[in-house]
Amino acid sequence: MGGFVGSVLRYVMSGAAFRLTGIAVFPIGTFAVNVLGCLAIGFLSGLAETRDVIGPQTRIFLMVGLLGGFTTFSTFGFETFTLVRDAERLYALGNILASVAVGLCAVWLGQVLARV
Q: Which whole number is the average pLDDT over 64-92?
């Protein structure tokens, strides 16, 4: 259910960002969703870790379901932040570089395979 709601919110938010800015050459909708998702997962994880006001079930619903449907980039941001916070900076850098490089290569490969 959370994934469904998050996906609908992503569609609405992305369209609203485009309509508000009118920017067509930059993926402003995706950018806005990713930044908002990162802010939300940071806030929710902070509440869960420091104030213990979000139980495990609600945390899973919000962070995995809702935000997972909204943007998986928030999970990428959170996991990378956690690596940095835990002094695993080399792994954090590896995650950033590998995710971007391998992700772009996978898009390219998918395009190539679609044309075969």
A: 92
